[in-house]
Amino acid sequence: MLKPESRPAKLHYLTNNFRVLADGDFVTCAVTGTRIPLDELRYWSAARQEAYVDAEASTRALAPQ
């Protein structure tokens, strides 16, 4: 659960991990705009350098427009 005073983190997404570039509490899903606590982050794209809240959002991001 995020607190109102939570700060966004800046990450560099790697294939199987990510590196924290700027400390924070969450990242924002590139598809839904949902705040994702760092300890709950499971889906991202290293190629696109973006995070996703769940597998469905990840699939939607990769689907042709």
Descriptive notes:
This is DUF2093 domain-containing protein. It comes from Sphingomonas hankookensis. InterPro entries: DUF2093. With 65 residues, the chain is mainly β. The protein has one domain. Helices cover 12% and strands 32% of the residues. It has one helix spanning 55-62, and strands spanning 10-13, 18-22, 26-28, 35-37, 43-45, 50-52. The chain has a two-stranded antiparallel sheet. It has a two-stranded antiparallel ribbon with strand order 3-4. A two-stranded antiparallel ribbon has the order 5-6. The longest helix is centred in the C-terminal third of the chain and has 8 residues, at 55-62.
Order of helices and strands: EEEEEEH
Rg (C-alpha, Å) = 12 Å
The general outline is globular
| Helical percentage | 10-25%
Helical segment tally? 1
Structural class: mainly beta
Mean pLDDT: 95
Largest sheet: 2 strands, antiparallel
List how many beta strands DSSP finds: 6
Order of strands in the sheet with most strands:
1-2
- Determine the strand fraction and express it as a percent band: 25-35%
Low-confidence stretches: none
**What's the structural domain tally?**
1
How far is the first residue's CA from the last residue's CA?
Answer: 33 Å
Short description:
Helix content is 12%, strand content 32%. It is mainly beta. 15% of the residues are buried.
